[in-house]
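User: I'm putting together a teaching handout on how multi-component assemblies are represented. Below are the sequence lines for each component of a complex, exactly as they appear in our records. Could you produce the 3D structure of the whole assembly as structure tokens, so the students can see both representations side by side? Please keep the chain order the same as the input.
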Amino acid sequence: MNRKQKKWLHRILCAAVLYIAALILYHNQSLFPGALAEYISIGIFVAAYFIAGYDVLKKAVRNIGRGKLFDENFLMSLATIGAFAIRQYPEAVAVMLFYQVGELFQNVAVDKSRKSISDVMDIRPDYANLLTADGERKTDPEEVKVGDTIVIKPGERIPLDAEVLTGESLIDTAALTGEPVPRTARQGDTLLSGCINTTGVLTAKVTKPYGESTVMKILDLVENASSRKSESENFITRFSAVYTPVVVFSAIALAFLPPLFLPGHPFGQWINRALTFLVVSCPCALVISIPLSFFGGIGGASRKGILVKGSNFLEALAKTEIAVFDKTGTLTRGVFEVQRISPANGFTPELLLKNAAYAEYYSGHPIALSIRKAYGKEIDPADIRNAGETAGHGIHAEVSGKMILAGNRKLLAENGITVPDGENEAGTTVYVSSDGIYAGSILIADKIKDDAAEAIAGLKKNGVRKTVMLTGDAKETAKAVADSIGMDEFHAELLPGGKVDQMETLLKEKSAKGKLIFVGDGINDAPVLARADIGIAMGGLGSDAAIEAADVVIMTDEPGKLVTALKISRKTLKIANQNTVFAIAVKLGVLVLGAFGLANMWEAVFADVGVAVIAILNSMRNLSTKDV
Amino acid sequence: MRRSYRLEGLDCADCAAKLERKLSSIDGMKSATVNFMTLKCTLEADDERMDEVASKAEKMIAVQEPDVEIRKL
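Assistant: Of course. Below is the structure of the complete assembly, with chains in the same order as your input.
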């Protein structure tokens, strides 16, 4: 509690003590002669009322002047003054007192959730150590320019996006990615602002101004996410715009119509019922708790390395029916590696790989790169002669005097070398021959990400009806990947335009309320990202294009985060729905009971502030992401 | 062009929602958001009208929410 809230609490306690004293006196009027006890107790009630509610009254008067008649303060003042007028003194003071207790509680709860949200987003650097001619100087990150050199010590937050000049250290990226394992940073590596330097001193050259740095982009995105409202929020806005006037006018009708038209109904009784209406007329519980649940969900997701660009997207995620994936870079690592070496005719695996690596020495093809990487040793170019390439088929070169061919089946067949039939495998197979003798084959394939299969299973468990993979790759490769991770459907050999066509077909397949998500790496798939209901870019850390194009950005390259995002979305929606139903049900219930005289001020106060507090507490559950 | 403010002391969610609606109706305002949780108010208008729109908005906030302290970010 802050100072203002403590003062508030003291006021409430003070008023409560007076209230109890007055109440005792009011019910034991024989203590004083005549009507004296009643007058004294009324005096104390009035004093307690003003101590508890003078600020509410002040605001109410100010608001009348500005024509804000449906303001909470005004309605509460009207209700309590009305109670005084019909000589319900204890009720009048109690309503104000409880209203204030509820408001204080609400205030503390909002402060607390504001704090937890700012903790979630506490990635803003406080200062930068700028290296100048006169040595190091602590400065505001905003004053550092591109090209300046900064020093980052162990334990400090990286203030700006930069490139390491000297030093080596482990970088904790958890605040940005949710990833617990630190990354190593050496000379030439990129440092992202918001991460924490843990072990060594680094000097680095700033690559982006503070305003465009990763940390500012993320904060901006999360803070502005609430401007894209979810359907639940829009519903509440529309509901509350109608609800308050309707309840207030019903109260007026309730106060005057029955006594005027029904004989034997005194005004006092109906005014009492009308005042009950006024107390319940504020939609505050809903107006606070729904955006709070969404904000909590967006904040919690960002802590897990998932940036959601709007409440509407967070809401829509829970309704995902079809999940479409790009293959390369999303489900697979997008890095080609030698997966299998199968020597033949007495060649050793080492010799086979060596021959292939030497033959491919001058080639810049990704396959050549991965073979040389697998070989891993220095290659002496003096041993290579007459190297050449047959486009689309492979390579030929003289290595240490032997004629080496490395390429597809066709290349070897054209040179009269028979290749034994092999099984169809995902990836690219390079066949190698040495002086006309078949030496074996090397399989190069893109590796499937470790958690891809788990992610697909997780999506299924969370209500996704169908998973589809789109790829430009060959059918065999696509099939192998799709089968091994349990994908429902795949479409291979697609040109970029073909992916959009496939999306159109899939969009027609889903139900009206269901959503289609597309998950890609954000490179080359902008049209598909835009066409999907929700475009999700994976591996967005440091990639501006991906952050721009997508609705949801997954900072790491784990498909498993999708399941986390879906779970957070479902939890958010559940909490928002619980609050909506609970608040509306209680309020309507009290209104109906109140109209028939079965509920009084006490129930009304509960329906107003009690419900608000319960709804806020329920929403605050969404700030914790421990269980997702 | 965007301009942001911090509305210190904004303590009622319903007021924040109402304020947002009122601000959005200012002539020349492209979009206005009042975030009750972060206490941040963001206004968007065309570059040449920004100053005019922002001063109208500042006045409106002062009238609607006299207890709120407006700080430019």
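A couple of points students might notice: The interface with chain B takes residues 62, 66, 72, 107, 110, 113-114, 117-118, 223-224, 226-227, 237, 240, 282-284, 287-288, 291-292, 295 of chain A (CB under 8 Å). Residues 255 and 271 of chain A are 5 Å apart (CA to CA).
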